[in-house]
Design goal:
The chain is an alpha/beta fold. The chain folds into 2 domains: 171 residues, 3-Layer(aba) Sandwich (Rossmann fold), CATH 3.40.50; 198 residues, CoaB-like (Rossmann fold, 3-Layer(aba) Sandwich). 30% of the residues lie in helices and 23% in strands. The protein has an 8-stranded mixed β-sheet with strand order 13-12-9-14-17-18-19-20, sandwiched between helices. Helix 1 packs parallel to helix 2 and helix 4 packs across helix 7. The longest helix has 14 residues. The chain is elongated and about 80 Å long.
Length: 392
């Protein structure tokens, strides 16, 4: 893989993220988050409470961000000057303790993170809160009311991971995706999306299957980028080589029959604005043997053509449809079946570089003609594809 392809997709270039750090044991996770944000192009400044400075040195956050850590409010009025460009600035409270959430909900600003919130939120800056505390504290009715109040006012929350009776700080990918969403939510705002992704299997016997090399990477990034761009509900049917974030409704499908059954059921039970189909599904069915096939014997397998899943989708879905076609040679101009249909062609490349997070060269066909998308990875390629479909 080329070196450039391994670099992060720097969609946060030109954005400023202020991280308000409070005194939770989860503080040890925050420098890693800061480093990830810097790699994505963001300018990050950390602002620490007095209590948090007893747990970790401000020098760690200077190292992680490259910017001086705010440990006191000086004549530079940092709680105001850091938010001089509200359209490109965002405040993240991470980790957010029971104490800081109580102060935010009741208008108390007696230390640096709560003071940052008091000004930033009033100045129109998006605010993201990343809670971390004992589970019983999170379930406390007072805390439930505080979260409900802040949410109703427009504060965004990244749900913690509940483990060992603790509400642990969320994984970095969920926090980062919420940051993207806060800055780009208008593109797919309110849209419901279905993604059919991954590879399918055809069973030969109870232990053997016929499959393909698809990793599900394209569908994984479509789902994440749909959330980043504001989609209100995202369902993914299929499988992926990477764990999916919790905000994606994942319906597992492995066999081709699973894909057909779950897709049809989902389209009948819900209405979607847009359906993406990057899945690599078998075009054939086989007769499954009830017992394990004996080794050492020559075997013939009969493959019978299947009806295309796209035909089923077209009959059940009235919104936008984005299908993917994989082949050896570039497609000539095609005429999609409706004004709401897009066909994405991806050429089979040698040495297995077709699958996984490699460079992507898409030819996108719709009623208006052809649009080429060339990107250094599936994350960037699918981002651009969604924007194209959204008319951006």
């Amino acid at each position: 893989m080329c070196k450039k392809c391994q670099e992060p997709f720097r969609r946060l270039e030109g954005k400023k993220v202020v991280v308000g750090v409070t005194a939770s044991i989860s503080i040890y996770r925050v420098p890693d988050l800061v480093r990830d944000l810097v790699k994505l192009g963001a300018s990050v400044t950390c602002a620490m409470s007095d209590a948090s400075q007893k747990l970790i040195s401000p020098e760690i956050f200077l190292w992680a961000s490259g910017n001086q850590t705010v440990t006191e409010i000086s004549g530079r009025v940092e709680h105001i000057s850091l938010f001089s460009d509200p359209g490109n600035t965002l405040l993240v409270i991470a980790p957010a303790t029971y104490n800081i959430l109580g102060k935010m909900a009741t208008g108390i600003s007696d230390e640096i993170p709560s003071l940052m919130f008091a000004y930033a939120f009033g100045h129109g800056v998006p605010v993201i809160v990343v809670p971390a505390m004992h589970e019983d504290m999170l379930r406390n009715p007072v805390m439930v009311d505080n979260i409900r109040k802040l949410s109703s006012l427009g504060v965004r929350f990244v749900s913690p991971r509940i483990e060992e009776e603790k509400a642990k700080i969320s994984e970095n990918i969920s926090i980062i995706d919420e940051i993207y969403r806060s800055l780009n939510h208008s593109n797919m705002d309110g849209k419901k999306a279905l993604v059919i992704s991954g590879r399918s299997e055809e069973s030969l016997d109870p232990v053997r299957v016929i499959s393909n090399k698809s990793t599900g990477t394209t569908g994984y990034w479509i789902a994440r980028n749909l959330y980043r761009l504001g989609a209100s509900h995202i369902t993914l049917i299929g499988n992926a080589s990477q764990p999916l974030p919790p905000y994606i409704n994942h319906i597992l499908a492995d066999s081709t029959d699973d894909f057909y059954r779950e897709t049809k059921a989902e389209l009948k039970s819900d209405t979607y604005d847009i359906v993406f189909v990057p899945a690599a599904l078998s075009d054939f069915s086989v007769i499954r043997q009830s017992r394990k096939i004996e080794s050492g014997k020559e075997l013939s397998i009969t493959l019978k053509p299947r009806k295309k899943l796209l035909d089923t989708i077209r009959s059940e879905h009235n919104g936008t449809l984005v299908s993917f076609k994989l082949d050896h040679e570039g497609m000539k101009a095609v005429n999609p079946g409706s004004n709401q249909e897009y066909i994405v062609f991806n050429e089979i490349r040698p040495e297995g570089r077709t699958f996984g997070d490699n460079t992507a060269e898409y030819q996108v066909f719709d009623k208006e003609g052809r649009q080429d998308i060339i990107a250094d990875g599936k994350e960037e390629a699918t981002w651009r594809l969604i924007l194209h479909v959204a008319g951006e």
